[in-house]
Amino acid sequence: MLIGELSRRTKVPAHQLRYYEAQGLLEPARAANGYRDYGEDSVTTVTQIRKLLEAGLSTEEIAFLQPCVRGVTPDLEPCVELLTALRQRRSKLDRQIDTLTRSREALDAYIRVTEQNTDAFAPSTCATG
């Protein structure tokens, strides 16, 4: 199938499919006219890629994990490298969540103080941006 058909069936824009190809995640054959020719299995592959991206994995991580990926769910075959990569990604997400939580708490504190000061003083004109 041509890239337009794959795009229609997966609801993924053609430019994104070309990006997946550039990242080594999708490997179409080339027709005699030079057009990309995607096999039926490409629909499953794109579905897997999208779901793994939704889980927060990078395209680099997906390329590493792809040999262990089966089905549209996708299901992952257990192997040490796979579990290590998933655990590392989870740890990175935990650190990002901790950072965002601290940032939110700091902003909440600024909001509280500013609201208290607003009650005590006349509002000033300060630049916001």
UniProtKB/TrEMBL annotation:
The record's section on CDD domains has: HTH_MerR-like_sg3
Q: What keywords were assigned to this record?
A: DNA-binding
Which residue range or ranges hold the HTH merR-type domain?
Answer: 1-68
Kindly provide the name given to this protein in its UniProt entry. MerR family transcriptional regulator
InterPro entries hit by this protein: DNA-bd_dom_put_sf, MerR-type_HTH_dom, MerR_fam
Q: Which PANTHER family match?
A: HTH MERR-TYPE DOMAIN-CONTAINING PROTEIN, REDOX-CYCLING DRUG-SENSING TRANSCRIPTIONAL ACTIVATOR SOXR
